[in-house]
Amino acid sequence: MADNAAINGQTRFRADSPPAPIADHIRRWGYAIVEDLVPAETMDRLAEEARPHIEASAPGRDGYDGRTTRRTGALIARCRTARHLVMHPLVLATVGEVLSAATTFQLHLTQIITIGPGETDQQLHRDQMAFDFYPFPADYHVQCNTMWALTDFTVENGATRIRPGTSALDDDEAEGVAVIQAEMAQGSVLFYDGKVLHGGGANDSATDRCGVNITYAVGWVRQEENQYLACPPEIARTLDDDLLRVMGYQQGAFALGYVGDQTDPLAALRGRDDKVRVVSDFADANASFRSFVEDLEA
Ligand SMILES: O=C(O)CCC(=O)C(=O)O
């Protein structure tokens, strides 16, 4: 079994940890684990809400998706309890720190990954490849992910495999880095960035390994799971504004995501016509906006 502690000193955070050291650990190692962030009962409730949808999900169509792995999305619409995981304050604060180079961040996908008995190791990969393999700079994080343990994660049942510290290494350099596995109890959460090499593990046990994969990306990229269709407007209108903003009902950055005549997307969903913010409202966002606005006003 991989020895996490031997590879780096601190891989486990308590649920009452502040976000800054967790974000620092993610920046250094590409991942962090927070133990017991929600009670097991919360995960049992979510498992119950998700059960019919998991049972109806087909196995993967190739070795990457996993031929005995089922992927079940649209969790905002299907599972009320998933909404609490999406909006968990420690998660939002940690993700916000990791993605702080961008004006906003948003939900990228919601998916229960059920790795069935007999599944083999998934190919290690970097999630940011979804952006058409665009070579983001090493210091620019485009996404930050969570994997919540819906069941216990063990080496035997396919706990997520990670090569720690490989976010800024190329594939050849990363080859020599030992793989660890994110063993954790139900209710714990694994954070990992979009650059670190990782993948699902082989399931050599007799039962399913279930993880709730909820990922976030900067506000200016396309979302992996289309939140506007995965959660239809009649359900979206019943949700809180804060959750809707994270789902993408907000300006992704200046000028991104308005409706019609520059209407704010959340206002449009609610049947109002409030306008989105103009560029000078972003003057505090970063130096580029500041200098643009100064020129505009000169
Ligand atoms: O299920 C896991 O542990 C990881 C899955 C994964 O990395 C993926 O499917 O992209």
- Which band does the percent of strand residues land in? 15-25%
In percent, how helical is the residue content?
Answer: 25-40%
Q: Describe the largest sheet.
A: 7 strands, mixed
Q: Globular, elongated, flat, extended or rod-shaped: what is the shape? A: globular
Count of DSSP E strands? Answer: 10
User: What pattern of helices and strands is seen along the backbone?
Assistant: HEHEHEHHHEEEHEEEEHHHHH
Task: Report, as a whole number of angstroms, the end-to-end distance.
Answer: 63 Å
CATH superfamily of the largest domain: q2cbj1_9rhob like domain
Ions, cofactors and other ligands present here are:
2-oxoglutaric acid
CATH topology of the largest domain: Jelly Rolls
Regions with little confidence, pLDDT below 50 for 5+ residues? 1-9
Given helix and strand content, the structural type is alpha+beta
Strand order of the largest sheet: 1-2-8-5-10-4-3
Total count of helical runs of at least 4 residues:
12
CA-atom Rg in angstroms:
20 Å
Number of domains: 2
Label this structure with key terms.
single chain, 298 residues, alpha+beta, Jelly Rolls, seven-stranded mixed β-sheet, three-stranded antiparallel β-sheet, 12 helices, 10 strands, 16% strand, binds 2-oxoglutaric acid
Summarize this entry quickly.
The protein is 29% helix and 16% strand.
